[in-house]
Automatic annotation (TrEMBL):
Segments forming domain VanZ-like: 27-144
Keyword GTP-binding: no
Span list, region Disordered: 157-185
Protein name, per record: VanZ-like domain-containing protein
Annotated transmembrane regions: 20-37
Pfam families reported in the protein's UniProt record: VanZ
Cross-referenced PANTHER family: INTEGRAL MEMBRANE PROTEIN, MEMBRANE PROTEIN-RELATED
Organism lineage: Bacteria, Bacillati, Actinomycetota, Actinomycetes, Kitasatosporales
Keyword Transmembrane helix part of the UniProt annotation: yes
Amino acid sequence: MGGVRQGSGGRTAAIRFRAAGGFLLAAHLLLVGWITLRPLDVPWVSAANLQPLAGIKADLALGGVQATRRIGEAVLLLAPLGVLLPLAGGRLVVSPWGSLVRTVAAAALLSLGIELLQTGVPGQVVDIDSLLLNTLGVAAVHLAVVPAARARLRHRAEPERGAALPREEASQGPTPTIPRVGIAP
């Protein structure tokens, strides 16, 4: 896709993937914003949790079913971003670790932004464990889906000759040089 030389059919597919990824990303972020930033009418609100893993320990103390539900909700809330962010980026030939780092960093920043916005929403509580679990969910989904999906798409995009796709950093020829001009006296 970005940086991969393909025929017009390959570019059209890349544009479609990017457009679909961008649309799905926007739709998911709107849903997440509605879920996490709407005011709640509750009789009381617990204090903000700024101590890492304290909320997870408290959830585990509630019992298996309740803990699984609460922790699972936090892990799954932003998990689709693990696939949607690379899809919206549209790059097919990239470093797997670089893609993981970019995706997880973007998801962590989005999660942090949501937590900071929650400070002004009635009934919503800031929880550092939500940030950790949201980021963990994004990383897990990215590792489980994206490398295999990219490999499959690269395999489908290879020419019939079996030649490898050029990398984004491939040389585009020699750098042009400018002949020296003498300095006037």
